[in-house]
Design a protein that fits this description.
Length: 286
């Protein structure tokens, strides 16, 4: 019997990731022979570690914080949505007829499944309406890049990007300006007008921090979504609840949905996400 195909998630930090559990469940469900592990690599060793992984026969990687923008340059071919985003969260070895692992490792597809994952989670798992709503996106890093086009595709009344480094936010607003009503600002310019949906795509929760948010951006009608997920509420979801928002959501569903999209790219089969999401939710509550 041949060895199982090798996959992993690469990031820094990455030990908290639930992706190995999710992909193990997907593999069981769909009877795929594969392994999925975590690789902790900082910015200096990221490129070499990725190249090494593929040169040694690895089949695919998920790329997480802080490498999504750097990963773009490591792909030899980009899917249209990765190209549009300017960020990659999935790398796949292109299957082909090359004889050696070295030759095959020269063909790596870069995709971005974050946006599809967020849209599915919001629409299907949480029944959140985006059309005609005012949406505020916190952050302008790799995760934010991946979700802007899919969010605009859902026709919000407007999408405002806010970031500490305003230049990064402005770059994104320009990059996606052809897709809908979009603006970029810094935190000091956030007024006190409430948004229908506030999405935290910053890495602040990962560090136990809260972006500098004025209280008025959240009302009793606001839905507050943190892409970060964990056992406990995040500083952002706690903050939003204290301000009496309608509901808070953590990014566990997005994680499962984007994983399913990556799995489909790698293995050509679509796993069932609902059962894995409920198992994961129960695990976090236990
Ligand atoms: P990046 O490192 O690419 O970007 C980080 C972003 O966070 C930047 O916009 C940065 O602002 C901002 N930021 C960091 N700390 C703070 C802070 N204290 N206050 C305000 N802004 C801050 O990370 P990613 O975009 O890849 O990931 C962001 C988050 O999204 C992570 O927590 C990650 O776990 C989560 N995520 C979850 C997914 C899921 O499936 N649930 C999928 C993808 C991401 P600046 O530019 O000013 O430095």
């Amino acid at each position: 019997m041949s060895n199982p195909d090798r996959y992993a998630v690469i990031g820094h930090p990455v030990s908290h990731s639930r992706s190995p559990f999710i992909h193990a469940r997907f593999a069981e469900q769909t009877r795929q022979s594969m392994t999925y592990t975590t690789i902790d690599a900082g910015p200096e060793e990221f490129a070499a570690t990725v190249r090494d992984f593929f040169a040694q026969g690895g089949k695919g990687l998920n790329v997480t914080v802080p490498h999504k923008e750097t990963a773009l340059a490591l792909a030899t071919e980009l899917t249209p949505r990765a190209q549009r985003a300017g960020a990659v969260n999935t790398l796949a070895l292109r299957s082909g007829k090359a004889k050696s692992d070295k030759a095959r490792a020269a063909h790596i597809i870069g995709d971005n499944t974050d946006g599809a994952g967020l849209a599915r989670d919001l629409l299907n798992n949480h029944r959140v309406t985006i059309a005609g709503r005012r949406v505020l996106l916190l952050g302008a890093g790799g995760a934010a890049r991946g979700v802007i086009a899919p969010l605009l595709g859902l026709k919000p009344a407007e999408l405002i990007i806010v970031n500490r480094n305003v230049i990064r936010a402005r770059e994104l607003a320009e990059r996606f300006s052809d897709l809908g009503k979009l603006a970029a600002i810094g935190y000091p310019d956030l007024g006190n007008e409430p948004y229908d949906l506030v999405i935290n795509a910053t890495a602040a929760s990962l560090a136990g921090e809260l972006p500098a948010l004025p209280p008025g951006i959240v009302s009793a009608q606001s839905i507050c979504y943190d892409m970060y997920y964990g056992r406990d509420e995040t500083p952002f979801t706690r903050w939003a609840q204290q301000r009496g928002c309608a509901r808070t959501i953590m990014g566990l569903g997005m994680l499962v949905e984007q994983a399913a999209e990556s799995f489909h790219l790698w293995r050509g089969v679509r796993p069932d996400t609902a059962s894995v999401l409920s198992e994961l939710t129960a695990q976090l509550r236990a």
